Amino acid sequence: MDHPWHIDELDLAAYLDRVGLPEREPDRESLDELHEAHVRAFTFDNIDVLLRQHQGVELAAVQAKFVGRGRGGYCFEHATLFAAVLERLGYDVQRHLGRVGAATEAPRTHCVVEISLDGERLLADPGFGMSLMRPISLEDGAEDDHRGWRHQVRRADPGEVGPGWELHRLRESGWELMHTTDELPVHPVDVLMGHHFTSTYPSTHFLHGLMLARHGVDRHTTVTHETVTIRRPGQPTEHRDLREGELEELLHELGVPLSADEEVRLLDVVAGLRPRLADPRAARTPPHPG
User: Looking at residue 232, which CATH number applies to its domain?
Assistant: First the structure.
């Protein structure tokens, strides 16, 4: 019987070559290393949504984009690929959907991966705008400090999402909620529907603004059609306006492998985004960094 997520279609050797790691037996050290390698290898971005050329979130399409071209994408793509890699390597995984924003108002448009390893439940989140660098324990109050990037897990209010978990990150002002993940079963069609909403609903943020993010050696950079934000562990956040003509430079600096045609079209689309944001429909859905 075919695997429901079609993990047999994954070219595992090509993926490992892309992220620069050898194949290893499942253990915590290898899992942490793989998670960080994935986050560093692939950007978080909504470029294909803006270009109206997204090929979908099935594994074959994601593999062609990420592994074949070295491109990135958003949570449904990252989680689909990373979960398939983990399963092929022998890890016990489950996919979960989550909500970015108020749990009683935000749709289930984020996707994460749970790993059960040596009697411990771990949350992997490779596809958030500012992703975890390595999995964190699914235990109320669990904290992780990875080279200054600090995160915390809390049990979610069962009255809002049922059994579930909140992931927080530490910022200058204190702990900030990133997303709330529930524990309902997830099937491929759920991810397809989440992607469809996120990429096509008239007021979705991904149709009205650029979101491009990448972890560097000592910093995390987020670029929108209006701003540049640079975060370094233990230092104040740098936030400024995007300068005229700067986006083209940042696409190359952040290593976004677009074709010449894609780059020209993206620059043209972004140039027209500010007038579109005057549309009141664009304010109904808050920015979705995951």
Answer: 3.30.2140.10
